[in-house]
Every structure is written in structure tokens, then in C-alpha cells.
Amino acid sequence: MSGQKSGPIHYPFWFGGSASCIAACFTHPLDLVKVRLQTVVSTARAKPTMLGTFVKVAKGEGIGALYSGLSASLLRQATYSTTRFGVYETLKTHFQPPGSTAPPSFPVLVLMASLSGFAGGLAGNPADIINVRMQQDRANPPHLRRNYSNAVDGLVRMVRSEGSASLFRGVWPNTIRAALMTASQLATYDEFKKMLLATGVFNDGLTTHFSASFLSGFVATTICSPVDVIKTRVMAGQGKGIGVMKVLKETFRKEGLTWVFKGWIPSFARLGPHTILMFVFMEQHKKLWRMLQYESSAAL
């Protein structure tokens, strides 16, 4: 017998994590600049910009500093993104209407993506803390620097000095952000892709994947920016007792409402390319898998 297998194709659980790790290798410097901007307190005289921060890091700390914390970023994607993509794709396949290749309705996709993001936020929280700390470390005064050599070293030293509970520091803003991010990123990508294909102008190719992922990145940045600022400041804080409410109180006291979309442009400058690369690589993973599945079926 020959021909493709019937029914929906089940893709490996790790595809999303793999695609996200590849994307992170390209966009890590932008993520580092975003973290630096979110953790600095603006004043009337000093309002750091994305380009200014980028140049400052490169000149003051060296070009290599733009990749500070890359190991933690990759560990975060390997835990956070693998979980959220894997759970989302599994739920999407499981609840797909019988005999249909179309995805579930958009409200159902949003619910699935939110649950998947929450799970991913929990799984990736320890690596996310180390990622933020390693990116921010060189901007701290020498006596406050942690000097983690890599992600694993950071996790071990954090547990030794702050206890195992520190692994879930900032977990609530992080999981809320992860749920919002996944709902506004994965669910909207599927919906934008479906809308573009429905016009009859686009086919299931690179142009569609690029367009849908660009729109998805814009939505995700706008929805997640305020939560992202708080999450970053909680995780970057020194010492114990740095909770969400304390950070919110201090932020409002010092900056008013201006913090809400602080770092939006660098966030989009980072999340836009990352979202595009992530989904493009994800679609290429899937395309290759379908080719391998077809060749395997045709050989039977």
C-alpha cells in the first residue's frame, strides 16, 4: 500500500521548544536590551532609549555582553516553550472536530493557549529568573553582581543562597504573562493564518507564515507589556521579600503610569522578530516532518 496516513498529523512535542531556541539565538541581544530598559528607573533628565542602551552595552561591556545569559535563555525556551507549544498542539489535535482539518474555534484556541501558557510559565520559571539576572548583571554595581558562569551554575547558587523557594520567585506574574503571551501569540497566529488563507490570495507558505506571525507579535507585545515589566523587576530584585505588590507600589510611586508600556518598542523589536522566526522555524519543522511521514507511508 502507498499514500499518506489518514487523520490529523501528530507532531513531536518538542518542535515548539526547538524552533524557539533557534529563534532565541538570533534575538537574544534585543531581549537583553529590553530587560535593561525595564529595570532602569527613568528620570526627567535621563530617559534611556533602545538604541542608546544597545550602543552603551556594546561600547561599555563589549559586543559579547549582548549575549550575556544566552545559556539561560536557551534553557528557558527548552522548558517554557517546549511545554506551552507541546500542550497547545496536543490539545488542539485532541479537540479538533472529527473528520476536519480545521482547528477549533478561536475562543477555544484562546482557552487552550492560556492553559498551555500557564503550564509553560510554571515549567520555565526557574530558567526565566536566571535569564533576567544574567542579562541584568553587568548593569549592576560590582558589589551587587552575581556573576553566574552559566544557567546551571545560576540555578545551583540561587538554591544554595536563597533556598529552593527562590526557583518560583515571581511565579504569579510570570505565569499570568505566559498565559497572556501564549493566548495572544499562538491562538492569534492560528487565527490570522486562517484568515489570510481564507482570502484566496495567500497559500500555506512563507509569506503567510511571516504575515500571520508579524500580526501575532504585535498583539502579544501590546497585551503582555505591563505584566512583563513587573515580572522582570520582581525577578531582577535583590534579596528576599521582593513581591509583586511591593514592586507595583514602588513603581507607581516613582514613575506614575508611564511604566505601563515602558520598553514597548524594544519589546516589539525583540518579540516581533522572535515571533516571526519562531513560527517560521516551527512551520519548517512541520513541513519536514510531513515529508518524512509521506516518504515513510509511501515506502509501505
Order of helices and strands: HHHHHHHHH
Measured distance between first and last alpha carbons: 6 Å
Report helical residue fraction.
over 70%
- What is the average of the pLDDT values? 85
Count of alpha/pi helices: 9
SSE layout and pairings?
Layout: H1 15-39, H2 50-61, H3 70-94, H4 106-136, H5 151-162, H6 171-198, H7 206-236, H8 244-255, H9 264-298
Polypeptide structure, described:
The chain is an all-alpha fold. It is 70% helix and 0% strand. It has 9 helices and no strands. Helix 1 packs antiparallel against helix 9, helix 3 runs antiparallel to helix 4 and helix 7 crosses helix 9.
List keywords for this structure.
single chain; 300 residues; mainly alpha; 9 helices; globular
Quick summary:
The chain is 70% helix and 0% strand. By secondary structure, it is mainly alpha-helical.
